[in-house]
Design a protein that fits this description.
This protein is an alpha/beta fold. The chain is about 45% helix and about 20% strand. It folds into two domains: about 110 residues, Rossmann fold (3-Layer(aba) Sandwich), CATH 3.40.50; about 110 residues, Winged helix-like DNA-binding domain superfamily/Winged helix DNA-binding domain (Arc Repressor Mutant, subunit A), CATH 1.10.10. The strands form two sheets. A five-stranded parallel beta sheet has the order 2-1-3-4-5, with helices on both faces.
Length: about 230
């Protein structure tokens, strides 16, 4: 379970974020903070895994909170900025400060879910007890720093798309949407949406397999000659 601290000065918006998180399996809200001082205190006391951080807070900037959360000696915590701040300077400072994702308000549940599911999938990959080679390190770093793509349909995240493509490439045989969901940590419905997008783009080939009950199941595999360019 990923334990989350919500930092948001607007009580109504904080409740919306809480409601969104409660709809996502694998996440648990442990506290809400409405000021910078409260955020730092609760982060120290409750030791969350993840902080959803607003940049505009009444007593101090969220960027100051970000720097304090990542100060030496503090409990390590991941941070996703969930904010109305859109200027380049704030985005740059947030990324330099260690923000993993930057979600601009207002947004729908779908966009929120995409960011949180891709974060959960990356967290699971990084938790695997094995050594990484340079290519894997580069790929994970690329996932964390991926930027939105104008070519993707609304509601699809380039971060999650890369995870799905990676899972397809690593598979030894054709796979189902359930297989991809299990491998990446996203939901089956989300997995199907990404696979269908890849199929429409010509990146993925679809075949049908009939089970013992006679029900057809879509099976997916990377199309021939698809290489690293799909990342």
């Amino acid at each position: 379970m990923i334990r989350v601290l919500i930092v948001e000065d607007d009580f109504r918006v904080a409740e919306i974020h809480r409601a969104y998180l409660e709809r996502l399996p694998g996440f648990s809200v442990i506290a809400e903070a409405h000021t910078a001082a409260e955020a730092l205190r609760l982060a120290e006391e409750s030791r969350p895994d993840l902080v959803l951080l607003d940049i505009y807070l009444p007593d101090r900037s969220g960027l100051e909170v970000l720097r304090a959360l990542h100060a030496p000696g503090r409990h390590p915590v991941d941070v996703i900025a969930v904010t109305a701040a859109r200027d380049v300077e704030t985005l740059r400072d947030a990324l330099q400060g260690g923000v993993l994702h930057y979600l601009v308000k207002p947004f729908q549940f779908t966009a929120f879910r995409e960011k949180l599911e891709s974060y959960a999938a990356l967290r699971a990959k990084l938790a695997q007890p094995r050594e990484l080679d340079q290519s894997e390190i580069d790929r994970i770093y690329g996932l964390l720093r991926s930027e939105p793509s104008a070519s993707l349909p609304k509601g699809l995240s380039p971060t999650t798309l890369t995870l799905v493509v990676r899972a397809l490439r690593d598979a030894v045989d054709d796979v189902s949407a359930v297989d991809i969901a299990r491998t990446t940590g996203i939901s089956r419905v989300t997995s199907r949406r990404y696979l269908d997008h890849l199929a429409r783009s010509g990146v993925v080939a679809i075949s049908m397999r009939y089970g013992s009950a006679g029900r057809p199941e879509h099976r997916y595999r990377l199309a021939a000659a698809v290489g690293e360019r799909v990342d």
